[in-house]
Amino acid sequence: MRIAVINQKGGVAKTTTAANLGAALAQNYGSMPSVPPQSGPASGNAAKMRPNSKKNPKLRLIDLDPQGSLLRYRKSIKGAVFHAPHADELRALLEEDAPSVVDCPPGLDDATRDLLLAHTDIVLIPLQPAYDALIGMVRTIETVEAAQATNPRLSFKVLLTMYRGRPSARQIRDDVQAAYPDNVCKAIIPYSLVFEETAALAQPVLSHAPDSTAARAYLKLAKESLTWQ
Ligand SMILES: Nc1ncnc2c1ncn2[C@@H]1O[C@H](COP(=O)(O)OP(=O)(O)OP(=O)(O)O)[C@@H](O)[C@H]1O
Ligand SMILES: [Mg+2]
């Protein structure tokens, strides 16, 4: 599963989402067998979680932002391999079809965006519930729909972030769910000041504040993402 975190609008939690989803996937699901046992006394949830000799390849965290924002998490996210590839390297990485989370800059250039959309399974669109962020979401969905002509595996998910539950935010949530009923993540990331600390420290919230609602929300997103087939 190759997930690209894209929204042309800046500051909507793309990097925060790539880092925290990446950390949750790498820490909690990295040792899951790629083929769960089907039958016998060892079947069931415990067996499914047991490390298996046929493990998934390591999660790739791919930073396409020249600012290197995701790369800052290199030391704090264990169990993932970080990349900051040029275009040719990106193509090769994506063509291998290994589990990946790609962090994109706000103004992703057309060539990189086209390459990414041709070799991605899910475009994850973080949406801060504000009307200007909706424009970035709609433009991103349009590019996804255009790319589906050549990449039928491609789909998108909208992730509400920085959510405070105010009436205007609830209205945006309801409108987006009504417009794209199959494409809105069940996980909603709450607004939380803990992200100021984790961004400054370049640490995932799962290790900095594992019991926080923010950490639980990204964990829920990670579990949900495993169903995006
Ligand atoms: N759920 C949240 N609650 C509060 N603050 C948040 C939340 N998620 C992210 N932030 C903060 O919002 C700011 C922008 O987040 P981030 O850098 O992830 O956005 P971005 O979309 O990657 O930005 P850019 O477009 O510049 O790459 C950061 O200061 C981050 O700590
Ligand atoms: Mg960023």
Determine and state the CATH class: Alpha Beta
Q: Give the termini distance in whole angstroms.
A: 7 Å
- Beta strand count: 6
The strand line-up of the biggest sheet is 3-2-4-1-5-6
* Strand residue content: 5-15%
What CATH calls the topology is Rossmann fold
> How many individual domains?
1
CATH superfamily: P-loop containing nucleotide triphosphate hydrolases
Give average pLDDT, whole number: 88
Percentage of helical residues? 40-55%
Based on the structure given, which CATH architecture is correct?
A: 3-Layer(aba) Sandwich
Evaluate the radius of gyration. 17 Å
**Order of SSEs:** EHHEEHEHEHEHHHH
* pLDDT < 50 runs, ≥5 residues: 31-53
What overall geometry do the principal axes of the alpha carbons give?
globular
Number of helices: 9
Main sheet overview: 6 strands, parallel
In terms of structural class, how would the helical and strand content be classed?
alpha/beta
Bound molecules: adenosine-5'-triphosphate, magnesium ion
Give a structural overview.
With 229 residues, the chain is of the alpha/beta class. It has one domain: P-loop containing nucleotide triphosphate hydrolases (Rossmann fold). It is built from nine helices and six strands, in the order βααββαβαβαβαααα. The chain has helices at 14-29, 45-49, 87-95, 110-118, 131-147, 167-179, 194-201, 205-208, 213-225; strands at 2-5, 59-63, 80-83, 100-103, 122-127, 155-160. The chain has a six-stranded parallel beta sheet with strand order 3-2-4-1-5-6, sandwiched between helices. The chain binds adenosine-5'-triphosphate and magnesium ion. Residues 14-15, 65, 69 line the site of magnesium ion (MG). Magnesium ion binds at residues 14-15, 65, 69.
